[in-house]
Design brief:
Layout lengths: L3 H19 L4 H12 L9 H13 L4 E5 L5 H7 L7 E6 L2 H13 L6 E5 L2 H4 L13 E4 L6 H10 L6 E5 L15 H15 L3 E10 L2 E10 L2
Parallel strand pairs: 1-2, 1-4, 2-3, 4-5
Antiparallel strand pairs: 5-7, 6-7
Helix pairs in contact: 2-5, 3-4, 7-8
Amino acid sequence: MASRGSGTKTWTAVDNYFACLLAPEDAPLRATLEANTAAGLPAIDVSPLQGKFLQLLVQMTRAQRVLEIGTLGGYSTIWMARALPPGGRIVTLEFNPAHADVARANLLRAGLLDRVDLRIGRALDLLPTLAEPGVPPFDVVFIDADKRSNPDYVDWALRFSRPGTVIAVDNVVRNGKIIDAKSKDPDVVGTRRMTEQIAAHPRLSATVLQTVGDKGYDGIALAVVLP
């Protein structure tokens, strides 16, 4: 049996192999990661393959409107914004003003700022402001913020959804810690509550994809809103 260390090296090598062929990073994407590092942002961006996965979700659903909860430096935002049709829009919420400044510069450099509505503040304070009369539902919702609030984020996603809306939630496996029912880690507790919430909800059909790769061992929950 391979050691965990050699396994991690293999995961990264496989990630690099597929990413080079299927999700190659261009200059704006590389510049985004470099700017994020230079600004001291945590290195928790999605991987290129995960970014391409999000882009495919937007393309497959023919999304016009996307909601992203957790912008960081805008790396995932760029992947999704590139898949939008003319007139498409992403609303992305970021708690940290310094992170939002970096994201705005990255989006401007990538030529995508006109497709993105970047809002700064606590997501649970900003989400109610999106419930304006006559505003159409979102077609895709990507949740990648503080995990303890995942149940609340899913509730809001449902309020802004329509039948067929896809909801994706990142980092749900947490290196396997998700199976610890006695965990006191708020991120594990929040993610377990969210998973139970989704499982019991009559309007949601969902699965979880475990992932290994450059970002280690984790997973993404994927749900579709039913009629």
